[in-house]
Every structure is written in C-alpha cells, then in structure tokens.
Amino acid sequence: MTAFFALATSLLWGLADFGGGLLTRRFPALTVVVLSQGAAAVVLGAIVVATGGWSEAGPRLWCAVAAGLAGPVALLSFYKALALGPMGVVSPLATLSVAVPVAVGLFLGERPGLVQVAGIAVAVAGVALAGGPQLRGAAVQRTAVLLTLVAALGFGTVFVLIAEASTSVTGLFLALCVQRLVSVAVGGAALSMSVRRGTSALPDGGFPWASVPALAFVGLADVAANGTYTVAAQHGPVTVAAVLASLYPVVTALAARGFLRERLRAVQAAGAGLALVGTVMLATG
C-alpha cells in the first residue's frame, strides 16, 4: 500500500509541476500559485463542510498551518533559483528535499533493509539524473544554490508536516484545507507586495478565465498528492514513502516528452531507468 500511494503521489506532483510550468510561461509564478491553491481551497472547504471535518480540529492542525507557511516559501525560492539558473543544475539539486523525511524516519527508529537502502540510493541518483543535470560549463551563482537549498528544506518539511497533520480521512481533508488557506494567505500577501512594487499580477488580457480549469487541475493535483503521500507515510516506512514520492521529476520529464515532444537527453533517459530500478528495489525490499 505504501508503494502504491507514494507512486501515486509522484504521478500527481509530476503532472501538477508540468501544468504549473506551462502556466508560468503565460502568467507570473505568484499568480499561478495563488489562483491554483485558491481553487483547491474552495473544493476542500466544500468537502470539509459536507463531511463535518471541522469536528476533527485539534492540536495537529498546527502542523497543517506550518506546512501552509513552508510551502509558498519553498515554491518561491525554487522559482527564483530556476530563474537564476542554470536549470540543469538547480532542478536536480532540489531533490535533496527527500533528506528531511528520510532523516526524520531514521530518527524515529525506522531501519530499512539493505535492499531498500540500496534502492533509496539508486532512486535518488536516478531522479537527479532525470532532471538533466549540466555536468560541465554551468556557472552557478551562490544565490541560486542557497535558494535551491532553502526550497529543498521547505519541500522536505512539508512532506513531514502534512504526514503529521491528521490521523483520519476527514481530518486529512481539514488539514489540507487549512494548509491551502494559509498558503493562499501567504501567497496573496506576497503577490500584493509585488503589485505595489509595480509588477503586474495578470496578463495584458486581464483575468485568465480560459485558464481556470488548468489552474484548478494544478491545485487539485497538488492537494491529491499531499493526501496520497499522507496515506503512504502513515501506512509504511516514511523513508520508503518519501523516496518513492520524490520521483515526480521523472513524471514531469516524461509529460514534457509526451505532450510537448521535448526530446529526453541520454542522461535523463538513464536517470528515469535508474529511478524505476530503485522503485522496484524499494517496493520489493
């Protein structure tokens, strides 16, 4: 069950990143974050009301609040790092986020078997290679590296917090709703500050009504991924769940190949293969 839900997480996050990447070619990144997360918050709010999820409110919700604060910071840091580039170095470096939940799992007493340890190493290496790392000729600014490390720490922290935010299905809906509301509030504040500085929040054509379905898909896929990751982490070793969930860059690369006809570099294809080998080792170990 852990492997299934963790792999579902990587699929959903990979598709969400792919959709978000396409949208940020037309709209400011902050606008995409706020609108997509806002759409998810509306849907989650309706589910919470329908299921009576507010009855699950308790101290664990503070984990959801913290995840809501960490998420936008991680996303914005990552986007800024990608802007500074080179992307071929920045993107694989962000996979260090897996170190946070793995470290927490080990601290809590999880001891993966030898095959699983090898699977973790193979999978992480595969994910890094699938990002298409530039192995030479890539001058990296210190700021880009620092921002990427901040993003990785933030993503890994969200992994851990969202897994601790609830113990039941209705509680999970409430936790995800609270996380999204906090994310929208933080992102909205940042967007407001950006507008005050003279940056446009919307394209020249005005509000992107035609893109609402795509924005909603990105937000809901991200929410669903948080949910499946929580289930995976609660029903199996966090170390395994986190590594399998971190395979999403492979999904993003394959989506770009399938929908945009982008050609995979040899190193990316090799990385995808290694990631699949590591997945099998983790699932069977």
From TrEMBL:
InterPro entries: EamA_dom, EmrE-like. Keywords: Membrane, Transmembrane, Transmembrane helix. The chain crosses the membrane at residues 28-49, 61-82, 88-107, 114-132, 144-163, 172-195, 207-225, 237-260, 266-284. GO terms for cellular component: membrane. Residues 3-130, 143-283 form the EamA domain. Pfam families: EamA (PF00892). SUPFAM superfamilies: Multidrug resistance efflux transporter EmrE. PANTHER family: ACYL-MALONYL CONDENSING ENZYME-RELATED. Belongs to the EamA transporter family. This is EamA domain-containing protein.
